[in-house]
Amino acid sequence: MNGRLVGSLTFEEIARLSERSVLLLPIGSMEQHGPHLPLDTDAILAQALAEAIAGRFGETFDIWQLPSLPFGLSGEHAWASGTLSLSISGMTALMRELAREIVRSLPARNLMIVNGHGGNRGLLELLNYEFKADFQLNACALHIGALMSPMTDAGLPEIHAGRDETSLMLALAPDQVRCECSAGLGKPLDDAEVRATILDPGVSWPWSSGDPRIAHRGVIGDAAEASADHGRAILERLLDAAGATLQRLLLNQEFVRAP
Questions:
Q1: Which pTM does this prediction carry?
Q2: In this predicted structure, what is the pLDDT of residue 76?
Q3: Is residue 197 part of a domain?
């Protein structure tokens, strides 16, 4: 059990936190993840990783976990039933209000967002500047998807609900995976089309996981090759990255204070 949940403390116990404490904020999404994974996959993974980070590094970095935010920016999946996406203005307002309340109500001034959904990344990167400038909150965002599936020049990229994401779910929440539905999800996709539509560094497109040129039943990747062993290896890689990120986050806090 994670004993470092802010929500489990009383108002008097908040004094356990200090300015050097690190808050973890898991953020996910509510969106289609193919026929084999639940709509809240990103929220499940963000919370599970935050719990694992607190379990491994909680004492070292004085980590405290905030309640999860289960919604995000999911316009690329809006074609599918069940997808609930915030607007850009709505999520911006929500995150700024939360940052304001953190600074008002808690002594901690370090925040690591554990982001489970790639579509949240652009906004979070910009908001981190405002958290620093407007609220004096030292923040960063750990992006599960990018760390889970680093881009290579070989093979089809794992963008959404493919081998890597399904494997991590098999390792962390196996009861939520419909394994019988993943058998037919190894259909080859056009690698060049996926890269041009989603990964072109020079052009941004409003792509959709409902586009049959780049996705099969909402999946962009090879879910049929998923395994729990691969998921456990990914988890260790994520935890290593989290440890290094926490060190740098606290170093940034000292650097900002330096004359």
A1: 0.94
A2: 98
A3: yes
